[in-house]
Amino acid sequence: MARKLRITQDGVSRLEQRSCLLLSTLRKAVRAMGGQLTLVVEVPDRGPVVLSGIAEER
C-alpha cells in the first residue's frame, strides 16, 4: 500500500492512526486497496443521498 500511495510505511501507519483525514487522502488509500470511495448522506425522513465528485482529482 505504501508503494501505491508513494509514501513510506511509516506514513501509512500515521494515516491509520489519524481520526481525521482529508477526503482526497482517504480516496487515495481506498483506491490503493482496489476500492472506490462513496459518500452517502442519511438524514431523517429522506432516503440516502449519494454524493459524487467529492475529492476527485482535478
What's the tally of helices? 3
Cα gyration radius (Å): 14 Å
Beta percentage is 5-15%
- Tell me the total number of β-strands: 2
- What is the domain tally? 1
Identify the overall geometry: elongated
* Quaternary class: single chain
List SSEs in N-to-C order.
Answer: HHHEE
Secondary-structure class: alpha+beta
Distance between the ends: 22 Å
Describe this structure in words.
The chain has a two-stranded antiparallel ribbon with strand order 1-2. It has 58 residues and is an alpha+beta fold. The mean pLDDT is 86. It is built from three helices and two strands. Helix content is 40%, strand content 10%.
Question: How would the blueprint of this fold be written?
Answer:
Layout: H1 2-5, H2 9-17, H3 23-32, E1 39-41, E2 49-51
Antiparallel strand pairs: 1-2
Throw out a few tags for this protein:
alpha+beta; 2 strands
Describe the structure concisely for a colleague:
The protein has 58 residues and is α+β, with helices and mostly antiparallel strands. The protein is built from 3 helices and 2 strands; from the N terminus they run αααββ.
